[in-house]
Amino acid sequence: MQRSYCFAKAAVNDRSYAARVMDRVNDETIAAKIESLVAEEHELRSREAADSDSNFRLESDRDRIQAIEVELDRCWDLLRQRRALRDAGADPEGAHVRDASTVEHYQQ
């Protein structure tokens, strides 16, 4: 991947480069990132059985799955914000990436 939108790294500094880049992307870019993350998550989950003999790989895969889940939540949140702003007649560029702790504590 040429550009990284890794939100896990942005958790320490919420206005990091990745967060600023995601603030300026369009809906299609966000949707493509979501699709990419979902595909990676599915691959990691299917690999779990094969990794059961290696605690290190299993732990590494689980850590990455957890990071992907957070990234997905942040991507979906940004996409929802953009759509809501557009539906309200406002500029979707006003949406911003929220920090992981905010998004992770939403009630479903």
Describe the structure.
With 108 residues, the protein is mainly alpha-helical. The chain has one domain. It is 65% helix and 0% strand. The chain contains five helices and no strands. It has helices at 7-10, 17-23, 27-47, 55-87, 100-104. Helix 3 runs antiparallel to helix 4. The longest helix is centred in the middle third of the chain and has 33 residues, at 55-87. The protein starts with 6 loop residues before the first helix and ends with a helix.
Provide keyphrases for this structure:
single chain, 108 residues, mainly alpha, 5 helices, disordered N terminus
How do the strands and helices of this protein lay out in sequence?
Elements: H1 7-10, H2 17-23, H3 27-47, H4 55-87, H5 100-104
Helix content: 55-70%
How many β-strand stretches? 0
Number of structural units classed as domains: 1
- Name the average pLDDT: 79
Strand coverage percent = under 5%
Oligomer: single chain
N-C termini distance: 31 Å
The general outline is elongated
Structural class call reads mainly alpha
Could you give the order of the helices and strands?
Answer: HHHHH
Low-confidence regions: 1-14
State Rg: 15 Å
Q: Please report the number of helical segments.
A: 5
Main sheet record: none
